[in-house]
Specification:
The protein has 10 helices and 7 strands. By secondary structure, the chain is an alpha/beta fold. The chain has one domain: Rossmann fold (3-Layer(aba) Sandwich), CATH 3.40.50.150. The chain starts with a helix and ends with a helix. The relative contact order is 0.17.
Length: 240
């Protein structure tokens, strides 16, 4: 962290993920709110506009799988999540949406993914990078499983400055629902600044990736890609 950033921002505080059934239920309820739905839909539109129109997609930290399933309408999907409760909910949703045969969700550790190298055409992750105390390791794993010409989209909160923190906590708690207040606060205090995220991208070895400030609340790591004509999914579609 630069000297200026140390003056304007409080040190990052490690953030925990949703762990209890009550926290998971509060998160699911928050997904039905207009603000959450709009954020999800915006993320999906950005992901599908990155140049990859088919293939294998990996959602790191998929939680209840809504973003992955929305993207799945035109892609295959694997979602990795550390919480078994979240994965159960994601599988239930996939079945309800009649996507159970195309979506595969598994409990796993994003720092040590048991997935093939250079296998995925698109990797996405929404608002979970702040939960890791070693995010560079996660980004290196993402770099490993992503195809050389694959696309990438990672979004997370931007850590507010010292004097904006309390205001941002209040704003986001109102948007996500009061039951999410504790999670919102820990997420904001555990989030990264733009400078920190840019350094993490450099340290991870991710090529062609850039950090974008979406607004005063969110940052994204994004990389455009190209569809792989040799994808086994592309080949399979010829016989369907």
């Amino acid at each position: 962290m630069s000297i200026l950033s140390r003056l304007t921002h409080s040190p990052r505080v490690e953030s925990s993920e949703l762990e209890t059934p009550e926290q998971v239920d509060a998160f699911i309820d928050s997904r039905a709110l207009e603000y959450s739905t709009r954020l999800e839909d915006d993320f999906v539109q950005r992901a599908v506009s990155l140049g990859v129109d088919g293939g294998m997609i990996l959602d790191v930290g998929t939680r209840v799988g809504l973003i992955a399933l929305k993207i799945l309408w035109q892609n295959e999907n694997i979602g990795v999540e550390r919480s078994a409760m979240m994965i159960d909910r994601a599988r239930e949703t996939a079945t309800a949406w009649e996507l159970g045969e195309r979506a595969f969700f598994q409990v796993g550790d994003a720092r040590r993914m048991r997935l093939k190298t250079a296998y995925f055409d698109l990797v996405v992750s929404d608002s979970v990078l702040h939960c890791f105390d070693d995010p560079v390791v996660v980004l290196r794993e993402v770099n490993r499983v992503l195809k050389p010409k694959g696309a990438l989209l990672i979004r997370d909160f931007q850590r507010p400055g010292r004097f904006q923190m309390a205001k941002r906590i209040e704003e986001h708690s109102a948007r996500y629902g009061n039951r999410m207040r504790h999670h919102v606060e820990t997420a904001l205090r555990g989030a990264y600044t733009r400078g920190e995220l840019e350094q993490m991208v450099r340290d991870s070895g991710l090529e062609r990736a850039r950090v974008v400030e979406l607004d005063e609340h969110h940052l994204e790591i994004e990389r455009t890609g190209e569809s792989d004509p040799n994808s086994w999914i592309k080949a399979r579609e010829q016989y369907l």
